[in-house]
Amino acid sequence: MSPWIAAAQGSCSGDTTVHACPPGRRSSRKLPNLASASPKMTPPSVVARALIPTVAAALCGCHADGHSTIRATVRDSSGIEIVANAAPLGAEHLPWTLDTVPIVDLGAREDDPHEQFSGVVIPLRLSNGHIVVATSGTSELRFFDPTGTWLHTIGRSGEGPGEFRSLGWLALGPGDTLRTYDWNLRRLSVISPAGKFVRSFDLASPGPRRGAIPLAVLTGGTILAGSTPFVTPGTPSGVTRDTAPLLVYGEAGTPVDSFGEFPGSEALIQGTEKSVTVMHCPFGKDLAVATVSGTSTIYVGSEDSPEVTIWSPAGLLTRIVRWHATAVPVTEHDRAAYVQAMEERAHPGQEEFQKRLVQMVREAPLPAQKPAYAGLVVGPRGTLWVQAYTAPEPDLPTPYQIFDSTGQWLGAITLPSRFKASQIGDDFVLGIWKDADDVDHVRLYRLSNRHPS
User: Fold this and answer.
1) Is residue 4 predicted with pLDDT exceeding 80?
2) Residues 373-385: pLDDT tens digits?
3) The pTM is what?
4) Coil, helix or strand for 258?
5) Is the Cβ–Cβ distance between 167 and 120 less than 8 Å?
6) Taking burial as the number of CB atoms within 10 A of a residue's CB, which of 115, 123, 357, 389 is the most buried?
7) Beta strand pairing status for 317-323 and 80-85?
């Protein structure tokens, strides 16, 4: 998630808010540089349907009883592989099982200040098993050993090297180095695995009145970034979805390549001549982007439909993965549940501001249907884990539909309710779990191989 940027000129009131909304992209061919980026790109799903398929095959797998299982239909359209899944292969094809009890639960010890997180909380696991947690409320990176024992903390509020004003992004770079991003300073910092500050640089503005949004670290430490507009007083009220290019930034902090344009997040805006308030559109869609640290294979989805596009390191669309899913309509009951959840999360001292946000939601036009999914994570063996959209019911267990490295739909692994995965390794799932009071815990679950060699 990444923020829309609310910026005021002149007499902006203090009620401006910032919401996490990523930018977007859609392109079916490589754009060699920024100068060649087209302002209007054709969605890859449209391109694929317009092309004449040269190869079509229904791949088959076999059960132990010898009966065949129909797998996805694969078509090759001018070099773009389209994998259409009518149904998952079944639970017996899933390579893993997930333990239901976490092996690490940072936040369980309420008397330990190192386990109390606030603001935006982002965890990462290093190759040696150490866990790093970014917490924007204290502008810190906290380091824990594989058992969850606190080791040390770096960072504080400020503008000097290794300090942060608005710590809102953490990613793993080459050699277990860390990348952080400060939204207010627009500064990317490089931190060693041991927690030592290495260097920092600014991310150049991708265009007039736009801010860069880092999304992933690619091969060699380059940064995949989107962008978002500065929203100012006078911006028309209503629901909007920005469209912008995905850019590749070099180590100097300037764009060196572009992947074309994509839709970003749907935002709800309430603007006047003196102020502007921005929040995520209720049941709005986001841009979902996933990649494996140190690689440049990029998975992108707009959440409009059950479809994900896969891109090569050269910026070429190589595969489109589709699966069957029934669209879920948005109802007034959903709106009421959404409002109730907002009211329950209200913080002391923000009652009036919260009332204004709730009123915006009550008056907002509802989308016809919920997003097709809620996020993407790349797992072991090149698998893609697609998070089901379960809002506004926080207590529902969350299924993740799993696709193998070829795009075949294997089935679902259900994660605990109130838990969202942020990193999946060969034998673990790491993410954020919210307790009944909406307090963030960092949890690590064991992922076990069903068929160990």
Assistant:
1) no
2) 999 999 998 899 9
3) 0.84
4) strand
5) yes
6) 123
7) parallel
Tokens at 199, concatenated: 């260097």
Q: Is 58 left (phi over 0), alpha (psi -120 to 50) or beta?
A: beta
Element (H, E) at 44: helix 44-50
- Structural domain boundaries enclosing 356: 333-366
Maximal CA-CA distance, the chain: 74
- Return the structure tokens found at 238: 């209503």
3-state secondary structure 356-372: HHHHHHHHCCCCCECCC
Distances in whole angstroms, Cα of residue 34 to Cα of each of 109, 249, 255, 296: 49, 11, 8, 18
Does residue 343 sit in the same domain as residue 253? no
Per DSSP, 174 falls in state G
| Token code pair at residue 136 | 């924007």
Please check the confidence at residue 162 and state whether its pLDDT lies above 90: yes
Strand partners, 6: 231
**Are residues 88 and 201 both part of a single domain?**
yes
Q: Quick check: 342 and 360 in contact, CB under 8 A?
A: no
Identity of the amino acid at 151: L
115 and 206 in a single domain? The answer is: yes
Q: What is the dihedral of CA 209, 256, 264, 371, to 10 degrees?
A: -170
Backbone angles phi, psi at 361, to 5 degrees: -65, -40
DSSP state of 220: G
Q: Is 14 helix (H, G, I), strand (E, B) or coil?
A: coil
